[in-house]
Amino acid sequence: MKDTMLAWIAGIMDADGFFTIKRNTYSMRIRKDSSNPSYQERVGIKQVQPEAIKIIHKYFGGYYRIEKPSAKNGKPLHCVGLSCKKAVVFIEAIFPYLIIKRKQAKILLLLRKYIDEGRKGYSKKTNRSCISNAQIRQRENLIKRLNQINDIRSIKEVWRK
User: Which residues are CB-neighbours of 48 under 8 A, at least 6 positions away?
Assistant: First the structure.
């Protein structure tokens, strides 16, 4: 993919995209076969016009769907989302061109590093990878940092000054 296309996609993500971490506790709460949550990188974008969404989906995959409008007179939203390694591949491709959401993207890349390091731990008892409490704290701190960056209240404080 050309650099100009990657820069264009980065601009779209800076404007309308989101970078987040999903903490999944399903295995702990429901299946009861895990003592730790799992963490996933998530990247997505929603727009009324489908062109950019379809291009991102074509080159990077993930899921594509159309959401019903939330507003009474709203238009349907075209959505694309990427998680886990697909999200990381996407972030690595557009990272040099991100400006506004560069910090959020960097946090997701750091999460992937922690996840890959955590795979080195293995429990014979459960026949699954296991992570330490320190590794869980690292991941929880990343969620906290990401939430602080994304918190609209911090932006409102800057506008008041």
Answer: 75, 76, 77, 78
